[in-house]
Write a structure and sequence with these properties.
Layout lengths: L33 E3 L1 E2 L2 E3 L6 E4 L5 E6 L3 E7 L9 E6 L3 E11 L2 E9 L7 E7 L10 E5 L8 E9 L2 E8 L7 E11 L2 E2 L4 E4 L12 E11 L2 E8 L8 E8 L11 E2 L12 E10 L6 E8 L8 E10 L5 E2 L10 E2 L7 E5 L4 E3 L3 E4 L7 E4 L7 E8 L3 E11 L7 E7 L5 E5 L3 E14 L2 E9 L5 E11 L1
Parallel strand pairs: 14-17
Antiparallel strand pairs: 1-26, 2-25, 3-23, 4-5, 5-6, 6-7, 8-9, 9-10, 10-11, 12-13, 13-14, 14-15, 14-16, 17-18, 18-19, 19-20, 21-22, 22-23, 23-24, 26-36, 27-30, 28-29, 30-35, 31-34, 31-36, 32-33, 32-35
């Protein structure tokens, strides 16, 4: 079944390579910035099947479903991932779903599903890169990874237990799409399965079987002490009922024995707090390694199906060494930054200077109780003055909205200090249902004026955070 979406790429346009200075803006009075240690937790305004991995080099490596290729992001911060450096790895296939990137035995590996245009031919594949930086070097196709049945397979992931490597994936029992089952098999190397597949979970509870076809998919591994947790997604990914379930086994058990695995009868993460259809999660740590975070996709709005965004929030652990995700956090309340991320200055759009038809409107879900909209004519804009105490590379992390009729993306024209304007993309998820648009820019120390002007369609801005990520 065609359960994934093709996603809009290239949203974080770059202003790098231009050194910007205060110049004639020295006389401008900077807007009142508030120094913050929190953020709004939509980290990508568009996307599905997120996979984020924090490596020993201090970088986060990220990927998601992008359609016909595998796109990799690399960032020093979780919250800056959307504006991070990227590279595209071609696969030669179609309908590329749920890629993952892993570092195994001194090399990088990408695991991904693809087909030839016919969903029935979806299979898992592997690529290898021996470079220290996976955005560099050469990706070598290691071919398909399959057990002897070579049945339909997606959402593959890998882990080691007691020195043995295992592959876990979602697949069909036969050649027809009756249901998706979770399988495990032993691996002889990172691109080869060397045992029969073993079923460890199938949809059985009401919350797993409330849509057809029934689905268990998106397995992800969390290990705590002697406990192996497989967090998986169930129900219809196209519905608000999509949610996370949990399988557990002991590290010292026979992981190829189905009896070693226990399924929790209830969801461990589901719709709530104004967030719909949370699922297909991955797990990472804060920059200082002190906190555990879940990164997941959710519907952009109630009933939006496969039109999704990517969110993150911290989680804790239960006494039995299973994860405690709680409920999705209120999207209109900022949450503390991942421990070790840089604090940021927050600017409210309503504090800016307005031109044309742009005007301030009050709204309870806006960060300061107000927003700027009606940027509807070519001469309309909002100018916001900022003052940075150190030159370097900055990320602008803006809370934006778009409810343009027809469901299309909109843009604002973003410029700094009167320079060339670039498109600042804003996804369509309804008015007063905020997403996050980002842009990376180089700023000299001192005062600058950032302008958001009329682009394509219609968009509003609530405000933005500005934080330094490099020299």
């Amino acid at each position: 079944m065609n359960r994934k979406t093709w996603l809009k790429g290239g949203l974080a346009l770059m202003l790098l390579g231009t050194t910007l200075s205060g110049g004639s803006y020295e006389a401008a009075q900077a807007a009142s910035a508030q120094t913050k240690n929190d953020f709004y937790n939509v980290i990508m305004q568009d996307g599905a099947d997120p996979f984020m991995y924090r490596h020993a080099d201090g970088y986060y490596y990220f990927t998601k479903t992008t359609g016909g290729n595998v796109t990799l992001w690399r960032s020093k911060t979780m919250t800056g991932i959307d504006a991070a450096e990227t590279t595209v790895v071609e696969t030669g296939g179609q309908n590329v779903w749920a890629p993952e990137i892993h570092r195994i035995d001194g090399a990088w590996y990408i695991y991904y599903a693809k087909d030839d245009g016919d969903n029935a031919n979806h299979r898992m594949y592997v690529m290898q890169n021996k470079s220290l930086n996976p955005l560099k070097g050469t990706w070598v196709d290691k071919g398909p990874i399959a057990d002897s049945t070579n049945r339909w397979a997606i959402d593959g992931t890998v882990f080691k237990a007691r020195g043995i490597s295992y592959f876990v994936w979602s697949g069909w029992e036969g050649t027809e799409n009756v249901r998706q089952v979770l399988y495990i098999a032993r691996m002889s190397n990172p691109w080869t399965i060397d045992s029969p597949r073993v079923e460890i979970a199938r949809p059985e509870y009401q919350w797993e079987t409330n849509h057809s076809p029934n689905v268990n998919e998106g397995p992800q591994i969390l290990v705590k002490g002697n406990q192996i947790n497989i967090v998986y997604s169930a129900s219809g990914s196209w519905t608000d009922d999509y949610s996370l379930g949990l399988l557990t086994a002991k590290n010292n058990s026979d992981l190829l024995d189905p009896a070693s695995w226990t399924k929790r009868p209830d969801q461990v993460f589901k719709t709530g707090g104004g967030v719909y259809g949370p699922g297909h999660a991955s797990f990472t740590e804060s920059p200082d390694g002190q906190e555990d975070w879940i990164v997941y996709h959710a519907a952009k709005r109630q009933g939006s199906g496969w039109d999704r965004e990517i969110r993150t929030q911290p989680f804790s652990w239960n006494a039995d060494k299973t994860p405690n995700f709680g409920s999705p956090l209120d999207p209109n309340q900022p949450i503390p930054l991942p421990s070790g991320e840089p604090q940021r200055d927050r600017y409210e759009a309503e504090d800016g200077r307005l031109g044309g038809t742009a005007k301030v409107s009050q709204h309870a879900d806006s960060s300061g109780g107000a927003k700027v909209g009606y940027i509807d004519t070519p001469e309309s804009y909002v100018d916001i003055d900022v003052d940075v105490d150190k030159g370097g590379t900055y990320i602008l992390y803006a809370r934006t909205g778009n409810g343009t009729a027809g469901g299309n993306w909109s843009t604002l024209k973003l410029s700094v200090d009167g320079g060339p304007a670039s498109d600042f993309f804003v996804t369509n998820q309804g008015w007063d249902n905020w997403g996050t648009s980002t842009q990376k820019m180089t700023l000299d120390k001192g005062k600058h004026t950032i302008r958001f002007a009329k682009g394509d369609g219609y968009a509003e801005i609530d405000g933005f955070d500005l934080f330094r990520v490099g020299k």
